[in-house]
Model the fold of this input.
Amino acid sequence: MNCGINSYQSLKKWKDEQILNLRLDAYALNELHDCVMKTVFKIALERMNGEKLPSWKFVWFLTGSGGRMEQGFLSDQDHGLVYETEDPEAATYFLKLGKEIADGLETVGYPYCEGNVMSSNPIWCQPLGKWKEQISDWMKEESWQTLRNLHIFYDSRVLAGEKEYIGELKSLIHNRIKNNSNLLSRLMETSMHIKNAIGPVGQLLPEEKGTHQGELDLKYTAFIPYVNAVRLLAIKEGIFETSTIARLEKLQDIKGYDAGMDRCKNNFATLLKWRLLSYKQTDTYNDTHFLQIKSLTKRERNELKRILKDGKNLHQFVIRTIEKGAV
Done:
């Protein structure tokens, strides 16, 4: 897929024209997002006030749903930069580039990240050596925020530059956890939460009030629980793939994980499909996370209940697996 466009405004127009043709194909939709974001990066490099292209090696990565290739029609931005040298000139250049990228993505239709996980933030734009120090500090501190940062970083996927930098940093996380299983337990404590969506007699529990009354919050009842549980297993096993489905496929090849992983993979693919099919052009970013229960057939409602129950079972499996290794 080649956009061949050299301005943010033209790119937004092209993206908006193309995107609704991809209602039935989550993979193709994410390929489109990749194409758009790579083009934003290319334009950002060219817009650096005529400055020469950097001679330093670097990598620009996505994280969040973009890193996992799980974006819907609307998505905010989550990204960062790693560069090779601690030269002050490099720091100034890449922070400036990071701001240009963030502004460009916003212009094209990707809202700024509310948590400021963007290349314009010095925390997410650092030389490789400082990144190693920062990740080590995150693992030592074990606060809610630093552990959240580790979760976020582990979903990093390279869009431009030196892939080995990200692999090196993920290896640092995995190797530290191999020697400190309690750290994995702490990561689990900060991420294994499920918003209940099934009542005591097996009924679906939609939102009771507000603009989404009668709708089910797919993000926090289904998507995030699957994503978080599978990411924990990926960190434990040193799996560097980022998409939930690719991680599940890798886990299937590891002894002790085969049972249930294929079913979870199919469940997650179904969730991705439902999110695309329920999208309306009037939706805001937050609207895309809700499913209108009345629009589902009886068979689909039963399937949704099963997917939600399987998600809880997956969480229990992850808890048992990680607790076995804790000391």
About this structure: The chain has two domains: 8-179, 188-325. The mean pLDDT is 90.
